[in-house]
């Protein structure tokens, strides 16, 4: 079974070492607190839309390539869904009148 890693792990294991940055320095460059970035790097907090936008700008290459905000958010969503699917799904009855929607 595929086990997606938390996107903070990618930042911690790949990005920061490649840029030779400390958490404090990376937080300064991103314009976020060291505590907030540390929580993401440790998998205790997710990548927010705002952080994803900051990461996109921060890691954009001169030719305009690099990970997009959408790619960071997609990674976070995959991780969150994988975590959620590890527990039983809540029981929810189908919406009344659902058949009428498919005929419209």
What is the end-to-end distance? 38 Å
Mean pLDDT over the full residue set: 95
Question: The CATH topology is what?
Answer: 434 Repressor (Amino-terminal Domain)
**Gross morphology:** elongated
Total number of distinct structural domains = 1
Instruction: Name the poorly predicted regions.
Output: none
Main pleated-sheet profile: none
| CATH class group | Mainly Alpha
Describe the protein's architecture and organization.
The protein is mostly helical. The chain has one domain (7-84): 434 Repressor (Amino-terminal Domain), CATH 1.10.260.40. The protein is built from 6 helices and no strands. The longest helix is centred in the last third of the chain and has 16 residues, at 69-84. Residues 18-56 form the HTH cro/C1-type domain. This is HigA family addiction module antidote protein. GO terms for molecular function: DNA binding.
SSE topology:
Elements: H1 7-19, H2 23-30, H3 34-41, H4 49-58, H5 69-84, H6 98-103
Helix pairs in contact: 2-3, 4-5
Summarize the structure.
The chain is mostly helical.
Quick tags:
434 Repressor (Amino-terminal Domain); 59% helix; 104 residues; mainly alpha; 6 helices
């Amino acid at each position: 079974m595929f086990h997606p890693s938390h996107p903070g792990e990618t930042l911690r294991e790949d990005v920061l070492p490649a840029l030779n940055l400390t958490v404090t320095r990376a937080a300064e460059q991103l314009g976020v607190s060291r505590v907030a970035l540390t929580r993401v790097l440790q998998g205790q907090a997710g990548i927010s839309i705002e952080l994803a936008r900051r990461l996109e700008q921060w890691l954009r290459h001169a030719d305009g390539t690099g990970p997009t905000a959408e790619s960071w958010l997609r990674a976070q969503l995959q991780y969150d869904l994988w975590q959620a699917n590890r527990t039983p799904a809540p029981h929810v009855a189908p919406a009344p009148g659902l058949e009428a929607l498919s005929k419209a």
